[in-house]
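Q: I have 188 residues here and want to know how they pack in 3D. Can you give me a structure?
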Amino acid sequence: MPAFFLGLRGAALLLTAALVLAVSGCSSLSPPAGITAVSPFDLARYEGRWYEVARLDHGFERGMTDVRATYQRQADGSVRVLNRGFDTGKGAWKQAEGRALFTGDAQTASLKVSFFGPFYGGYHVAALDAGYQWALVLGPDRSYFWILSRSKQLAPALREQLVARASALGVDTQALIWVTHERTDPQP
């Protein structure tokens, strides 16, 4: 009986390891094909608060308004990511804290981000204002896309320019959700 138990236990460990590898391998850490991450990139200038101006729909942000992200370099070289927004379905503020690491040279805006332990997804800044006032960000593929800005709204001409740039990157701009920022967050 002990040999049978060890066999089942060993098989369970192998199955668990295989599932972890399969799930973590499902999300590419490289930019989508044809996308080059911004380089040179200066994390010190990118740090701080960004407002989500537009995004493609995903379950983890569905129904969210007033979404912002704050990036902060940590002593170990990682980046603390704090995403916060208002969940209209629950009528409450919601936040998620994550950790980002550069996938290569820190001068290239290609990172991997995790909000769930060992599971990372790609985060690639594909276009960035010279003054670090707006950014176009893609995830592991073109179905993950965000327009971020240091301000809650974009001027109409700039909005049109960024939509055109996103379209040139292969993003389905017709599916963009324009995020409203009308509430006052109790946490400044």
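Q: Anything worth noting?
A: Residues 1-26 have pLDDT under 50 and may be disordered. The first helix runs from residue 2 to 25.
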